[in-house]
Amino acid sequence: MTIGHFPQSFDIATVGGWVACRGAGQYSTRYGKIDEMVVGLEVVLADGTVIRTGHGPAAAMGPDLTRLFLGSEGTLGVITRVWLRARPVPTHARRAAYSFPNFEAGIEACRLILRRGATPAVLRLYDGAESQRSHGGDGQESILLVLDEGDIGLVEATIGVVEDECAAATPMSADLVENWLAHRNDTSALQGLTRKGFVVDTMEIAAPWSRLPTIFTDTRQSLMQVEHARAATCHLSHSYVDGACLYFTFAATPAPDQIESTYVAMWDAGQRAVLAAGGNLSHHHGIGINRHRFMAESMGASLAVLQSVKDALDPLGILNPGKLGLTSPFGTVAWP
């Protein structure tokens, strides 16, 4: 059996981390984010009360309390047990790759694939720079990697839809998918740049299909306008009927005494460009410390509702204080 959850951080990730931050695996277009895999939770509240959520596959018993704690990042309770939905290990798989003249054309193909109801496990579209860096592209073309697995009838039907919607694209060798599978969890290149003094990070967001082209353009431009910026690239990593996740990678080369200020400036520029263009704050990395400063502008008046839940469940503010943009009796988070 498998739950189908394979995040890039698999070697160092934990089930608790997946649930606490509402993580997504690389096969999420087929299996869903961790949200769709969690059947129920055991949670210890701030006063020591132990509760269990989850009541069958489709209960209608008021608000779903499982969803309340999913993504709460330890601020509402301590998750001590998780029940996950499993399924048979797939018996059939197909792979394909295509080249599009630009990123926008690839976005449209992905949108049409999902609109027709096809959900290949992997649907990863890389912009020109990332296609060149990782897949040998010419620097202009955008390369799409496709992988699906499951029952043979379902997989073949899904790949048929992909082939239809990618008919105008240039087919490429499926070996590109095999190469990605072999190296998908290797982040040594980014770590190497960090050791050399580069500011390097990734920012993943999600937005409706209609907003993605603008977010793709505006966010990269905003990142590159920051002093010392060297690169801002993007790929589409997770798709849904109503939108998709864009995953940005950015780098800068500031002087040693400007590393922290440059890092904050890059995040301010990139994240606020996303919010201004209609994207959300995070798709699967969560909020943590770095993104807490964007919560109010992202959530608006609904942040007060989250604060009221926090106050009710944790009146002393002892659970992971200062996170998710929530107020804390212990003061504000000092950085950034």
Write out key terms for the chains shown.
336 residues; alpha+beta; Uridine Diphospho-n-acetylenolpyruvylglucosamine Reductase, domain 3; Alpha-Beta Plaits; GMP Synthetase, Chain A, domain 3; seven-stranded antiparallel sheet; three-stranded antiparallel sheet; 12 helices; globular
Summarize the structure.
The chain has 336 residues and is an alpha+beta fold. The protein contains twelve helices and ten strands.
Description:
The protein is of the alpha+beta class and 336 residues long. The protein folds into three domains: 15-84, 2-Layer Sandwich (Uridine Diphospho-n-acetylenolpyruvylglucosamine Reductase, domain 3); 92-183, Alpha-Beta Plaits; 188-276, GMP Synthetase, Chain A, domain 3. The protein contains twelve helices and ten strands. The protein has helices spanning 15-21, 28-31, 65-69, 103-115, 128-135, 152-165, 175-183, 188-195, 212-224, 259-276, 295-299, 302-313; strands at residues 38-44, 50-53, 78-84, 92-100, 122-126, 142-150, 170-172, 199-208, 229-239, 243-252. The strands form two sheets. The chain has a seven-stranded antiparallel β-sheet with strand order 7-4-6-5-9-10-8, sandwiched between helices. It has a three-stranded antiparallel β-sheet with strand order 2-1-3. Strand 9 (229-239) and strand 10 (243-252) form a beta hairpin. Helix 9 runs antiparallel to helix 10 (259-276). The longest helix is centred in the last third of the chain and has 18 residues, at 259-276. The termini are far apart.
